[in-house]
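Page 42, continued from yesterday. The earlier attempt failed because a stray header line got pasted into the input along with the sequence. Redoing it now with the clean sequence only.
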Amino acid sequence: MLVMTRFVVDEGDDGFAERAHAALAALAACPGYRRGALGRAYDDPAHWSIVTEWESVGAYRRALSNFDVKVHATPLLAQALDEPSAFEVLAESAPGGALVVTTSDRA
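This time it went through. Structure tokens are written below.
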């Protein structure tokens, strides 16, 4: 499962990256977390994103109730753009690997 959370950050918000680092570290300490990254748009440095990968939607939802996540990530996530952020992976391919298609859990 992928979680893509996007932000538009005011130019004067110098603490955003530090808060995002703390949020990513809190999420990374949770069971089911696979990987994550903080990124900023090349073309518009006000646009940021945090992308995390989880072993399941349940692992992600349980992580959101973790104390450290509530302290460090939830306030940051409240600043995110109001749009869908959780996505099920329906196809993937490793470098040089075959495409693997998965059926939806929603079916």
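Notes: The helical segments are 16-28, 57-64, 67-72, 74-77.
Reminder to self: strip header lines before submitting.
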